[in-house]
Amino acid sequence: MSNRMKNIVVPLVAVLLGVLVGTIIMIATGYNAGSAFIALWNGAFGEIYYTGEVIRQVTPYILAGLAVAFAFRTGLFNIGVEGQLIVGWLAAVWVGVAFELPKFIHLPLAVLAAAAAGALWAFIPGLLKAKFKVHEVIVTIMMNYVALHVTNYIIRTVLSEKSDRTEMIAESASLRSPFLEGLTDYSRLHWGILIALVCVFIMWFLLEKTTKGYELRAVGFNQHASDYAGMSVSRNIILSMVISGAFAGLAGAMEALGTFGYAAIKGGFTGVGFDGIAVALLGGNGPIGIIFAALLFGSLKVGALNMPLEAGVPNELVDIIIALIVFFVAASYMIRILIDRISKKGVK
Amino acid sequence: MGLMEILLIIIPSTLLWAAPLIFTGLGGNFSESSGVVNIGLEGLMVIGAFTAIVFNLTFVDVFGSMTPWVALLAAMVVGALLSILHAVASITFRADQVVSGVAINLLAIGAALFLVKFIYGKGQTDIIQKGFSKVDIPFLSDIPVIGKLFFSNTYYTSFVAIAVAFLAWFVMFKTPFGLRLRAVGEHPMAADTMGINVTRMRYIGVLISGALAGIGGGVYAQSISSDFGHATISGQGFMALAALIFGKWHPLGVMGAALFFGFAQSLSIIGSSLPFLENIPNVYLLIAPYVLTILALTGFIGRADAPKASGTPYIKGKR
């Protein structure tokens, strides 16, 4: 089997294995697996309302997946998407409540503020990696928690008076669309999905079709060779983190300007940033793969909410399945060996 | 409020918050010293906390006042079992260790909440009746001043944690096993040439990390939260990871860092009742452990270097 085929088959096998183990868990705990999956399907595609919600959920997933994937492609592991998303969320809301401007200025400004905030948050680990050789995984994890506590503090003291949430953003900064909402039976679907799809194109174009993208990938493959060829390794590392962080910040803007319209005190993480790792991995870090993976995880997440209602199965089952998919993709060495064995037998 | 009274509040609270971090941080130390990065500490703590609470609620009539300790053993076993997944993925199947750790974290919280709903039919467990309770440690608490400060109104688990830290230091730096473990983490090929079974040592390292993180979660659940829900463990595992780095991958350093982070955490909670802290926003105390870790890694507070082979799978015959 060719490598190209394998790259498509491996994620599919991982998804199947994840669903299989999820089914076994349901059978072992005495739940009706069949009705659970029907409830899952109905919860994602049974009504147009649910489908609208799926696309809404897919929007930040695509962007978070892009953020992780972009860093991956350039040899970096950005676990800090969650933190960059949170600061992006805050920045977008901040711009959304602080100004009163015409829509064609206000909305882009709020979106760009989110991207800039995410980029800034990712700039720090990039800089530390480039200048001090500090591993970006640990720094980004730590930055996640700093982001969580600092944004909570700002929401409580600066953006509100000791309240748990900010006020709503101005209409002129909102991504909401009565047209899309009407189309999907009043789901929270908003224009953000277009931004996400444009970003998919931007990532593909940047990495595959520009000199800078070539440099970024080269540094990811082999720092010494790139250095020898006259590329600035440290500048490319920082740039890569900044672009990745900007995507993550945009994911935050989707939640801020589209889904919620405000920022609230968070007791814990949103989880979107970590699910972004799953999206990027399953999507093989490629633009098309990310869209499909985001669709899968988005519909799983939204559909899961219907499982307790219709089938009496806790929706956490889907979290288990997602975790297992990540696990099986990570351990794809096992699946690749398996495929090799099977295809060799076929030849004989 | 006099200094003595302030210390009487701060020291027991520091010890209380530090204990889970010490256990979990030491766990991470065993794993990373053997060359396997363990981002899954958070998830292992989650599963430990979940196991301890469920065990405690179920068997409190059987074991009576010993329940929390037996529950810790159960948490230890289940933590070790879950860590096998991480070991198989990252050692045998050469998975990206960070990704596998992320999967462990996602899996643990998903599985724990799924099982809570399955067993109790709601999103959160009841509050346990027999947790670890405050004690005056016999004899030691009678020592003037020191006894009152360190050994009164405190928890046995904190002292067990400190004892385990010294034990870990002894095992890692004074026994052949420890030397082999560290050798495998620094230069697996050299270790392999000397006849050390790299795979086996790494499995042991990861299993110990799972066991200790399970205990850490169990201690947290039974002395601080007293029940289990989605937010019971939120960031404790990552803070233990921070303690591991701030402590420079050395058991006693890890203990020191964990005590310091415990201090910062307890200040962020009780700070508003202390006269000199009431005007400082507690956000500074909340982010202190994380910021300090970044500074430590950057080299501002003495350089922290990870074991050399940490994070790379060992493939026999590959140069």
TrEMBL record, chain B:
InterPro entries: ABC_transp_permease. GO terms for cellular component: plasma membrane. The chain crosses the membrane at residues 6-27, 39-57, 69-91, 98-120, 155-173, 203-222, 254-277, 283-302. The keyword Nucleotide-binding does not apply. This is ABC transporter. Its main location: membrane. It comes from Cytobacillus firmus DS1. PANTHER family: GUANOSINE ABC TRANSPORTER PERMEASE PROTEIN NUPQ, SUGAR ABC TRANSPORTER INTEGRAL MEMBRANE PROTEIN-RELATED. It is a multi-pass membrane protein. One of its GO terms (molecular function) is transmembrane transporter activity. It holds the Pfam family BPD_transp_2. The keyword Cell membrane applies. It is found in: Cell membrane. Keywords: Cell membrane, Membrane, Transmembrane, Transmembrane helix. It comes from the Bacteria.
